[in-house]
Amino acid sequence: MIELTKENFEEEVLKAEGYVLVDFWGPTCEPCKALMPHVHELEKTYGDKVKFASLDITKARRLAIGQKVMGLPVIAIYHGGEKIDEKIKEDATPSSVEEMIKKYA
Questions:
Q1: Is 43 among the residues known to form the active site?
Q2: 3-state class of 88 per DSSP?
Q3: Using an 8 Å Cβ cutoff, are 56 and 24 in contact?
C-alpha cells in the first residue's frame, strides 16, 4: 500500500499506468479504520492487477476536496488520471469494494 501525500499524488495516481485504487481516510473516521484491514487483504489478492494507495485526508485537505472527497470513507478507482469509480460512506463495504475492484482487475 503506497502512502500518498500532496507531493506524490499526481505521480502515483494521476500519471500512473493502469488502475489505481485510492483509500481516502482519516484518523478519526471509525468506518475508515474498520475498512482498512479489508482493503489490505484485497491488495494481497488484486495487488498484481491494481495499484493500491491510501491518503490520510487530514494531511491533504485541499487535495481531497479537489478530488471531490466530501465524506469518508471513500474508496476510488483511477485510470488515465481520472476517477472512474468509487464507493462512498455506507456503500464502502468490504464486499462492494471487492466487486468494484473485480470490474477492473
A1: no
A2: strand
A3: no
3-state helix, strand, coil in the chain (%, to 5): 45, 30, 30
Q: Where are the beta strands (DSSP E) in 5-59?
A: 19-25, 50-56
Rg of the chain over Cα atoms, rounded to whole angstroms, equals 12
What does the alpha-carbon distance between residue 100 and residue 45 come to, in Å, rounded to a whole number?
A: 14
pTM: 0.97
CATH, range 2-104: 3.40.30.10
Q: Tens of pLDDT along 4-43?
A: 999 999 999 999 999 999 999 999 999 999 999 999 999 9
Active-site choice (13, 21, 22, 32): 32
